[in-house]
């Protein structure tokens, strides 16, 4: 081959390699492949033993410091996390050991909530996400929404059929350790429920994190994901009325009700948070995209109106540790970002949203968090397979 041709081939190869690197670089940065996570605001943290494998902390009452969490155990998480295709249902207890916990941040005490009236066929609750609606007329009255990933009746079919997921609704009073079951919401559109945003005592939005319960494409989702959807449900009647509120949404994970008609949604694989506006027919139209280039999980809205988004800042470490639910001792770094609407602040020169890192830990104090819920100057950090919850005071 002539020397000139060899040079052309070499230049083309280098050009292709450079082009591929330019495409991969943002994804590698998002995944935290080369990221070093340094401690920030993690000097004053205290662990809360006993609150293990709590994927989500729905809500913290700013007056009483009462929080509600949905918790499991790492031994169960090894076998059963439908969102990550842990579908070994035959290894689960016949009746779930998962529970709702009520946690008092002031006394650092917690207790399990007794669930009254849950149908026997449910075999308990199989928890993932949670949200709470507080009655405007009676602030002590709460409606709890959880997504429960029930195993299929024939548990041996779980690897091919996935979970028989539903939304369970309970009512309780602030701080009490008992909740009354109100309704099980089952609908064909409730396929792979991840997170819930309550909009009333019987209405809610819900993110389906995947289009399919089980599908070969899910094994490669970190590289290319099949778009899914956000669902709106009205369960005020005997038969729930659910619609697709927003379609073709890439890995919708944590969602949260914002001010007015706004809904916030983390798009885990895209490294951004979307802002939606709910219409009179409950469909959602896109308003804004907040790019931070992290793999985000849950979102919570503080009393200050800011969003608090939890980053799976080293996603491959998180996935590796999740294979045995952290029982091998692998630790995973955590980051939490605060996102503010700065529309009215002239110093930001027209920027609508700004974000700042408010907490980081390399995994030694806080490992594998999927939630950072704000309370006063503190964060309540919990995780899908974390060995304990942690409360940290911010400077």
- Averaging pLDDT over every residue, what do you get? 91
Assigned CATH class: Mainly Beta
As a percent range, the share of strand residues is: 35-45%
What is the strand tally? 27
Bin the helical content.
Answer: 10-25%
Quickly give the CATH architecture: 6 Propeller
Categorize the overall geometry.
globular
Query: Helix segment count?
Result: 4
Task: Outline the biggest β-sheet.
Answer: 5 strands, mixed
Q: What is the count of structural domains?
A: 1
CATH topology: Neuraminidase
Low-confidence stretches: none
The CATH superfamily turns out to be TolB, C-terminal domain
InterPro entries: 6-blade_b-propeller_TolB-like, Arylesterase, Serum_paraoxonase/arylesterase
Keywords: Calcium, Disulfide bond, Glycoprotein, Hydrolase, Metal-binding, Signal
Organism: Rhodotorula toruloides (strain NP11) (Yeast)
Family: Belongs to the paraoxonase family.
Structure summarized in a few sentences:
The protein is built from four helices and 27 strands. The protein is mainly β and 395 residues long. It starts with a helix and ends with a strand.
Note down, in words, how this protein is organized.
The protein has 4 helices and 27 strands. With 395 residues, it is mainly β. The chain has one domain: 6 Propeller (Neuraminidase). The chain has a 5-stranded mixed β-sheet, with no helix packed on it. The protein has a 4-stranded antiparallel β-sheet with strand order 1-27-26-25, with no helix packed on it. The longest helix is centred in the N-terminal third of the chain and has 29 residues, at 3-31. It starts with a helix and ends with a strand. The model has no long low-confidence stretch (mean pLDDT 91).
């Amino acid at each position: 081959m002539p020397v000139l041709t060899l040079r052309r081939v070499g230049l083309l190869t280098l050009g292709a390699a450079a082009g591929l690197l330019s495409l991969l670089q943002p994804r590698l940065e998002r995944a935290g492949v080369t990221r070093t996570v340094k401690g920030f605001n993690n000097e004053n943290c205290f662990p809360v033993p006993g609150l293990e494998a709590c994927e989500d902390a729905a809500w913290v009452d700013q007056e009483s410091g009462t929080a509600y969490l949905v918790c499991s155990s790492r031994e169960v998480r090894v076998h059963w996390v439908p969102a990550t295709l842990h579908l070994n249902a035959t290894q689960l207890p016949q009746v779930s050991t998962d529970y709702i916990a009520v946690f008092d941040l002031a006394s650092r005490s917690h207790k399990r909530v007794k669930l009254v009236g849950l149908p026997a066929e449910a075999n308990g609750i199989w928890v993932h996400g949670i949200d709470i609606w507080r009655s405007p007329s009676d602030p002590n009255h709460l409606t709890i929404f959880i997504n429960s990933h029930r195993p299929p009746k024939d548990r041996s079919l779980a690897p091919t059929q996935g979970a028989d997921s539903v939304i369970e609704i309970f009512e309780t009073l602030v701080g009490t350790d008992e909740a009354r079951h109100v309704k099980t919401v089952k609908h064909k559109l409730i396929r792979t429920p991840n997170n819930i945003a309550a909009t009333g005592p019987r209405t809610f939005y819900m993110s389906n994190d995947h289009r399919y319960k089980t599908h070969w494409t899910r094994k490669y989702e970190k590289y290319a994901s099949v778009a899914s959807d956000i669902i709106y449900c009205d369960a005020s009647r005997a038969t729930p009325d659910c619609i697709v509120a927003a379609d073709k949404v890439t890995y919708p994970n944590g969602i949260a009700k914002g001010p007015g008609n706004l809904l916030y949604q983390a798009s885990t694989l895209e490294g951004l948070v979307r802002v939606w506006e709910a219409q009179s027919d409950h469909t959602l139209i896109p308003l804004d995209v907040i790019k931070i280039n992290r793999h985000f999980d849950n979102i919570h809205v503080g009393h200050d109106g800011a969003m608090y988004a939890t980053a799976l800042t080293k996603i491959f470490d998180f996935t590796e540790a999740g294979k045995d639910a952290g029982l091998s001792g692998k630790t995973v770094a955590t980051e939490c970002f605060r996102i503010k609407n700065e529309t009215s602040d002239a110093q930001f020169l027209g920027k609508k949203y700004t974000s700042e890192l408010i907490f980081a830990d390399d995994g030694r104090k806080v490992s594998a968090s999927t939630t950072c819920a704000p309370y006063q100057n503190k964060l309540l950090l919990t995780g899908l397979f974390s060995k304990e919850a942690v409360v940290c005071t911010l400077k």
